[in-house]
Design a protein that fits this description.
CATH superfamily of the largest domain: Band 7 domain
Shape: elongated
Number of strands: 8
Low-confidence stretches: none
CATH topology of the largest domain: Tetrahydropterin Synthase, Chain A
């Protein structure tokens, strides 16, 4: 009876020692007698006790490295403080264990030097304006090295690019000047369009008046109205001017002035009508 109990206990101990549960999102690397043997997937796995040994278990989920703010000199000799985050994951468990020691430390150092190198190849304006292209360049260059480590760089996010206070002030002044310049251009364009509309309206009015005078040259009421309107407009503008002067006209003689202007206008329109008929 005792031998049977001993055998049962050995079998139970063997089963407990050989059963390994790997959590979802993880993988484990098994060596047999000191050599790479196989990779365990999530779930229940069995190994040979004593002969097999799990040397590494790690996650295959996405991880990140927060790069400390770096002081970098750009292509146009401006000091910047750049802060970035690198997102990565293990794509090959055995290579991440056998090809590199201290994987996270190596990734941090590689990401830092690559970030400094790429930013230094660009001007301040390029680093700010083409940030997506800069991120892609960093990713491509990192993956060239990390591929043999069994690591995939998923994305790089440059969180902050901080220039010195003097440069930041100059950038704000430049943006303000650009906004002011665009506003002045829009205002000038609006005035130009208004002047064009006004000229088109004046042209149409003159055409209507000209047709009316051709059909009835003796009708002086139209010209009398126009002369009076121009007189009122001129008086208004003269009064609004800072250098305005008051001009007095004899009311008795004002009618003679209007009659003279009307006579000249009628003669001009009559001559135009005769020339047109000839």
């Amino acid at each position: 009876m005792e031998p049977i109990i001993a055998i049962v206990l050995v079998l139970v101990g063997y089963a407990l020692g050989s059963a390994k549960v790997i959590s979802e999102g993880n993988q484990a690397l098994v060596e047999r007698l000191g050599r790479k043997h196989r990779t365990l997937s999530p779930g229940l796995n069995f190994i040979v006790p004593v002969i097999d040994q799990i040397v590494m278990e790690d996650t295959t989920r996405e991880q990140y490295i927060d790069i400390k703010p770096q002081n970098i000199i750009t292509k146009d000799n401006i000091y910047l403080e750049v802060d970035a985050v690198v997102f990565w994951r293990i794509s090959s468990m055995d290579r991440s264990f056998y090809e590199i020691d201290d994987l996270q430390g190596a990734l941090a150092q590689l990401a830092t030097t690559t970030l400094r190198e790429i930013i230094a190849q660009n001007t301040l304006e390029e680093a700010n304006s083409f940030r997506a292209e800069v991120d892609k360049t960093i990713i491509d260059q990192l993956n060239e090295t990390t591929k043999k480590w069994g690591v995939e760089i998923i994305r790089v996010d440059i969180q902050r690019i901080t220039p010195p206070d003097s440069v930041r002030k100059s950038m704000e002044e430049q943006r303000a000047a650009e906004i002011k310049s665009r506003a002045a251009i829009l205002e000038a364009e609006g005035e130009r369009q208004a002047a064009i509309k006004k000229a088109e309206g004046t042209k149409t009015s003159l055409q209507i008046i000209s047709e009316a005078l051709r059909s009835n040259p003796e009708n002086k009421e139209i010209l009398r109205y126009l002369v009076a309107q121009d007189y009122v407009d001129a008086s208004h503008k003269l009064g609004a001017s800072q250098n305005a002067k008051i001009v007095f006209m004899d009311p008795v003689k004002s009618g003679d002035v209007y009659d003279q202007l009307l006579a000249e206008a009628v003669v001009q329109e009559t001559n135009k009508s005769e020339n047109g008929a000839a």
